[in-house]
Amino acid sequence: MKIGLVGLGKMGFNMRERLRAHGLEVIGYDPRPEVTDVGSLAELAASLEGPRVVWVMVPAGEITQSTIAELADALESGDLVIDGGNSRFTDDAVHAELLGARGIGFLDCGVSGGIWGRENGYGLMVGGSEPDVAKAMPIFDALRPDGDAADGFVHAGPVGAGHYAKMVHNGIEYGLMQAYAEGYELLEAESLIADVPGVLRAWSKGTVVRSWLLDLLVDALEEDPELAQITGYTEDSGEGRWTVEEAIKHAVPAPVISAALFARFASRQDDSPAMKAVSALRNQFGGHAVKSASPKNSASGS
Predict the structure, then answer these.
(1) How confident is the model at residue 294, as a pLDDT?
(2) Strand order in the sheet with 123-127
(3) Strand (E) positions, 60-146?
(4) Which residues are paired to 107 by β-bridges?
(5) Which tens digit of pLDDT belongs to each residue from 52-107?
(6) What 8-state DSSP symbol labels residue 33?
(7) What does the pLDDT read at residue 233?
(8) CA angle, 141 as apex, 138 and 145 as ends, to 5°?
(9) How many CB atoms lie within 10 A of CB 163?
């Protein structure tokens, strides 16, 4: 099978290599000349034989939208586009309609596996029609982990279902990472614990909290035992926010995911205005001591 792959970043590049290792011919396009196989999306389309399959692996939002719009002009009826990025599920119906007007099929595919997917395989959650999924199955079979397909691949439902499933997956990921992080901080805070990385590693095989995320935390601490080389500033790529919004929409209580999202917001504040207000209130009603801001943190000219 011969496919096109748009976007050769950290995940897209590794996906191209895994697909090739499984016997698929992949023509990749990326704006960076050092990694691309062709010079443009039009050239990519011309290099593929119909019916074409093009996998899009670019950042969610405007870049995905413009890429799919360009592919709508470059491809033909009977071709298929797969959006494997972290697009919001509400964008999928728009993309399917745009492509469908040209007779081009569309699948949305949530992809999990990060930079390790090239070796381990990727978890795949797909939305779209049965015929389009069947057309792309050689791709999914090459990308998913070895073994039982159901352990790494699901046709979750119609268009939008794949990205919805991935959104919830990432919301859960937020909560899991926050729990491990809080446990790590609590271990660090107790002087009785002489070997924090050792404790975490001891949890990695037989305990009920073992997981790949825990393994990755152990690896990170082996490389930097005090995590001194990084700051606590933590971005969010959107899926956590969308998960919380969907929880509100469906009246589903999601306190853990919500708290994990807000913890990321807190990580970006050098000195939280909200906590300043809490400190001031404690001082006002109870006379509790407050810490004065250092001169470098004090506002000037006021």
Answers:
(1) 64
(2) 25-29, 2-6, 53-56, 80-83, 105-112, 123-127, 153-157
(3) 80-83, 105-112, 123-127
(4) 82
(5) 999 999 999 999 999 999 999 999 999 999 999 999 999 999 999 999 999 999 99
(6) T
(7) 85
(8) 160
(9) 29
- Which residues does 293 contact at the CB level (< 8 Å), separation at least 6? 271
pLDDT digits (tens, 9 = 90+) for 5-23: 999 998 999 999 999 999 9
Q: Under a CB-based contact definition with an 8 Å cutoff, are residues 154 and 125 in contact?
A: yes
> Distance between CA 104 and CA 159 in Å, rounded?
14
Give catalytic residue positions.
Answer: 166, 173
The whole-angstrom separation of Cα 184 and Cα 198 is 11
Give the whole-angstrom CA distance, residue 205 versus residue 120: 19
Average pLDDT over residues 150-158: 98
Query: Which tokens sit at 125?
Result: 């959650």
* DSSP E strand stretches across the chain: 2-6, 25-29, 53-56, 80-83, 105-112, 123-127, 153-157
Q: 2-157 has which CATH code? A: 3.40.50.720
* Separation CA 20–CA 10 (nearest Å): 16
Tell which CATH classification among 1.20.1440.230, 1.10.1040.10, 1.10.3210.10, 3.90.550.10 matches the domain 167-266. Answer: 1.10.1040.10
Q: Is the pLDDT of residue 299 over 60?
A: no
Residue ranges covered by each domain of the chain: 2-157, 167-266
d(CA 24, CA 2): 6
Q: What is the pLDDT of residues 241-264, one digit of tens each?
A: 999 999 999 999 999 999 999 998
**CA–CA distances in Å: residue 64 to residues 58, 60, 94, 145:** 6, 6, 12, 26
